[in-house]
Amino acid sequence: MCGWMHLPRYIDKIRLHLAGKLHADYQPNFGKGFDGAWLKAAGLNHESFIEAVQGSLCDGQVADWVAKNVKASADDKRAHAAGMLEYPKAGDQAMNDRLVQRKQQAGLPHRSEITTFIDFIDADEGRI
Q: Which of 59, 58, 56, 33 is closest to 46 using CA atoms?
């Protein structure tokens, strides 16, 4: 959406949060993790973006708001996507340990092809 990886997922999480339906598993990192990475790349804060989503009727209105209020280049968007797709980096032992922990919690420790958090999300949600 608007050239941003993760933005549609974050908007969905916000809408679920506003409806009181955001699953408990997502609440500790709501506005952090990949949400926070997008906010940082977009130059926004969590609360103001929640307000923008809350004031919209549809995702098209959110996309219009983002286009108007977020000034990032195509290179910025590509760098953000690359950072997400490669996370965690091989040398980041703490985050690699966290990925192993999340795989175990989800019953996926046998899935050696899951090497990034994007892979994990896709596997956990049944896409791979």
A: 33
